[in-house]
């Protein structure tokens, strides 16, 4: 199975601060670093580092070459990424001393995709291929509809969630990867048990992976449920932890690992990402994940 990840590519401007700036407050950052990022790019890099054959589709501006270089170095096929005249998407990321973050996105080229370009990319894919989507590009609803028409398996990480997600035919999605906030936004429920029950009722054939922060992760399909906890690591920067989880979970399934093992591998990988600075720069390799000796948090 080949993976086509239709997603964003961002230049992340990461500011290290004592705390996240409050409304009306001005604070001086201790450090500014520039990292490759974007939920799309991060998930492609994570998939590739997990050993999956991944083709990334999307758009960058003339300033986006360094993002393509990072993808290539990780083994991502970027032949379907177009360079357009609009500037590359970027993110202003504040990272506090506690490792928490706050992100402002400027979509740039990510939101200027056309139906013609999407049709061209999808023409090379079909049954047996998987398309992975997040919500940082435009026309996600169209990609879902066309990918389903071509018989592709559809995995959706509806992040960052907004009303454009509700315009999508979510009934066509085979695998949801979402956190509690996104789960609440889709289902209108707050409690994780209720979110899972509502997802099962509305999307009975779909797999659901619900990440629950410190409470770990829960997977469900039909009546079956599995859980996994989180590992004890020093929290340096949580940016791209969810993207790392997504890439390693899907990568493990593509290696035909059982779901319980895929949850373990993805949890180790995202814990390692949390213990390092940056977005895609923090994503471990498959070997690092296999060699990691981490302790589960009780
Ligand atoms: O998930 C982390 C990513 O969100 C960052 O890399 C940033 O670009 C934003 O898209």
TrEMBL record:
GO molecular function per UniProt: ATP binding; metal ion binding; ribokinase activity
Per the record, the pathway is: Carbohydrate metabolism; D-ribose degradation; D-ribose 5-phosphate from beta-D-ribopyranose: step 2/2
Q: Which Pfam families match?
A: PfkB
Q: Where is the active site?
A: 243
Q: What is its main location?
A: cytoplasm
As for subcellular location, the record says: Cytoplasm
Q: Which residues bind substrate?
A: 10-12, 38-42, 136, 243
Query: Could you say how this protein's activity is regulated?
Result: Activated by a monovalent cation that binds near, but not in, the active site. The most likely occupant of the site in vivo is potassium. Ion binding induces a conformational change that may alter substrate affinity.
Bound how, and how many: what does the cofactor note say? Requires a divalent cation, most likely magnesium in vivo, as an electrophilic catalyst to aid phosphoryl group transfer. It is the chelate of the metal and the nucleotide that is the actual substrate.
UniProt: ATP binding residues: 179, 211-216, 242-243
Is Chaperone one of the keywords? no
State its Enzyme Commission number(s): 2.7.1.15
The reactions it catalyses are: D-ribose + ATP = D-ribose 5-phosphate + ADP + H(+)
Cofactor names from the entry are: Mg(2+)
Mind listing the UniProt keywords for this protein, alphabetically? Answer: ATP-binding, Carbohydrate metabolism, Cytoplasm, Kinase, Magnesium, Metal-binding, Nucleotide-binding, Potassium, Transferase
Q: Which PANTHER family match?
A: RIBOKINASE (PTHR10584:SF166), SUGAR KINASE (PTHR10584)
Report the function annotation for this chain: Catalyzes the phosphorylation of ribose at O-5 in a reaction requiring ATP and magnesium. The resulting D-ribose-5-phosphate can then be used either for sythesis of nucleotides, histidine, and tryptophan, or as a component of the pentose phosphate pathway.
Subunit info? Homodimer.
Q: Record's family? A: Belongs to the carbohydrate kinase PfkB family. Ribokinase subfamily.
Name the UniProt record assigns to this protein: Ribokinase
Organism this protein belongs to: Candidatus Anaerotruncus excrementipullorum
**Taxonomic classification, please?**
Bacteria, Bacillati, Bacillota, Clostridia, Eubacteriales
Which gene name does the record give? rbsK
